[in-house]
Amino acid sequence: MAGPTTGAADAQVGADLKLTGRRRCPGAESNHRHADFQSSGLTRQGRDFAWFSPSAGRPVARIGSAAHGVRSAGADAWRVSVILIPMLSVAVLEAFDRYLVGHSLALDAVVVGGTALNLLGVTTRVTLDCDVLHPDLPDAIVQAARAFASDWRSGGRQLRDDWLNNGPASLTRQLPAGWQDQLSVVFQGTALILRTPGRADLLRSKLFALCDRGIDLPDCIALAPTAEELRDLLPWVQYQDANPDWSEHVRATLADLAERLGHAL
User: Fold this and answer.
1) Single pTM value for the model
2) Which sign does the torsion angle of CA 212, 22, 17, 33 carry?
3) For residue 167, what are the contacts with CB-CB under 8 A and spacing of at least 6?
4) Which residue in 131, 172, 180, 259 has its CB near the most CB atoms, within 10 A?
5) Where are the chain's structural domains?
C-alpha cells in the first residue's frame, strides 16, 4: 500500500493544519517543530479497532472494543507543529526481559504513553522511556533497570538510567473506578509482562496529556477517537485541573483535534 505523496499535495495538507502547543495556562506556548505524521491505519474487525500494517498486509494489533468510526489505512499525511514523543523499542524490552531472568527478578506492570501505543501497533517511533502506571516499581526493579541501562549503553546504544519509571503513577487516582478490569497484555516475556489500560482510559491519558503539555497530537490522531468518544471524555479532561481557564482550553484543544479527524465536537 503506497504511502502519502510529497510535494504540492503534501504542502497543501500541511498549510491547513497548525497547532500552537499550550500548557496549563492557556496562552503559554510550548517549544515545537514541524513533523510529518501519517494518520493511523485503523480498520474495523467486528466491534474492535485493529491496527493494519501495510507491510504485513494484515491487522497486527487490537486497540479496543466498541463501535468506533474508522480511518482507512494509507490515509492522508498530516503536517503538524508539535514536539514528537518517540516510542520505546521492543528490542529493549526483550533484552530487559532476559536481564530480569538472569537476575531472578520479575515485573508485571501496566504501561501507558508511547510504550503502550508502540506495543499496540498504533505508532512505531522509537524512544528510550517506559512509563509505568502501576504498580510502584520495587527498589530491586529500579536498580535492575539502571544497571541494565548501563549495560545497554556499553554497546554504544542510548538508554537513560530512569528509562523505566513511575512518571504517570498519579493517574491511577484520576482514572474512573474499574480501570484495572479493562487491562490487556501487550508484552509477554518470561519475567516481564506489560499490560495496557482499555481504549477509553488510554484516550483519557493521551487527551489529558495533549491539553496539559500540548505535545501529544500525533498520538491522539493515531488513536483516532470518534466524535462520540471525544464528547464522552470531554468532561473528564475538563475536571482534571482547577485553573479557571482550563475548561475552555480543553474544549478548544479537543475541538481542534476533532476538526483534524474530520469530526465536529
Assistant:
1) 0.67
2) negative
3) 131, 132
4) 131
5) 90-198
